[in-house]
Amino acid sequence: MSNEEFELNCSVRTEFGKGASRRLRRLNESIPAILYGGKKKAVSLTIPHKDIARATENEAFFSHIITLNIDSKKEPAVIKALQRHPAKSLILHADFQRVDMKQEIQVKVPIHFINEDKCVGVKLDGGIIRHTLNEIEIVCLPKDLPEYIEVDMENVKLGDSVHLSDLTFPEGVLSIALSQGEESDLNVARVQQPRGAMEEEEAAAAEGQEAAEGEAPAEGESGDSGGEGSSGDGDDS
Predict the structure, then answer these.
(1) What is the pLDDT of residues 19-51, one digit of tens each?
(2) Three-state SS for 87?
(3) How far is 11 from 71, CA to CA, in rounded Å?
(4) SS3 of 88, please?
(5) Is the dihedral of CA 36, 38, 39, 40 positive or negative?
(6) CA distance 78 to 36
(7) CATH of region 106-196, choose from 2.60.60.30, 1.20.120.80, 2.170.120.20, 3.40.50.620
(8) pLDDT in tens, 183-219
(9) What is the pTM of this model?
């Protein structure tokens, strides 16, 4: 778990609806949010936009226990959803889920790829690394929540892939996908040939196939006359 701490000052929201949310954003420079989960009722909140915008600049915010200061109370939570403006750098709404420090939580954490510059499939064979996952869904106690999961690419050869089962998860952290069986052992990354080289190989293979087909007898060549005679017999009858 990271040593970083995130706290957001919040207020309980009493006005609802689209109009109220627009006024909140425009006049108070705050955003609507909601806190739910646990055995308590959901609470509608307002959060200063500048505070949450600053917090979300740090990747760790999305995989970290956040303290919500709601009036005089503190609520540990994790961010579950964030709605952004499609054209402007504005946050429109945030969803938080309460955290019980004694109960496991299910969250998504980012992947950090390391040693890509030392990858043997790249250095020795000219391959390129393709990331197929950027985050992993895990389950753990809040105290064990990692900021990210590392994927070491140093010894991955050209044509090889890294799967979830190849990763080392911190103690107390389990992959949701792996818990569902071997068929859910997702591909995380692979080292493949550059697109140009792949296209050249595909073209060469296609040319080889065409040449092989050209050497073989044309389809139906030896049986054309028999086929026509059979058809003619049918016409005569």
Answers:
(1) 555 655 655 588 899 999 988 899 999 999 999
(2) coil
(3) 6
(4) coil
(5) negative
(6) 10
(7) 2.170.120.20
(8) 999 999 999 998 765 555 555 555 656 555 555 555 5
(9) 0.71
